[in-house]
């Protein structure tokens, strides 16, 4: 006769995997739904609004598991040395992403014969020539919405959920990194094929830094904010000519 206790771990594990899949689909579904509604109303920072709605739902699921954002790496560095290391890592990440975007993306676009649509930056035209509006957008949407929001949701929630789903081993982590990058890339579909591929590749870079640095989000938040700030500031100072 088979021992019932031997079957319990397998049943529990299967149930948890199903729950993880459900949570990921619900969170991403909320993000896409809110983004669609926000876009229909021409809301400024529609993507950031959608991200934070997803974060609230993700936080609810995490709380049920007894997990908080600090467990996923949301914490300030402790001590001067840790600050220096974190900021240095953030700057290295910025350099790596800028080099990739400057050298690899144009080559890839030429090889594929596709380019980022000019219309992808139309949503930024409202703050051109308005320094105060630009500054508010920079702080609220770029830093709070994108830098903090996307790192919490994409790395803090999605990547960790996928690692839990596929397994915390080499193959499982690799699959989680690739899939999470694919999702992040598709969230930037408005930038066309080059935008999807390039943001997906950036997600891989960020995931590698996150995992090799002990799952700390602070360096990635700083790097994310700096990268977006550089690009949006270049757009603003050039009166929309640099995209």
TrEMBL record:
* Span of domain CAAX prenyl protease 2/Lysostaphin resistance protein A-like: 134-229
Stated EC number for the protein is 3.4.-.-
Pfam families under this entry?
Rce1-like
Keywords of this entry: Hydrolase, Membrane, Transmembrane, Transmembrane helix
Q: Does the keyword Transmembrane helix apply?
A: yes
The entry's protein name is CPBP family intramembrane glutamic endopeptidase
Give the organism the record lists: Congregibacter variabilis
The residues that cross the membrane are 21-38, 44-62, 83-108, 128-153, 195-212, 217-237
Which Gene Ontology molecular function entries are recorded, alphabetically?
hydrolase activity
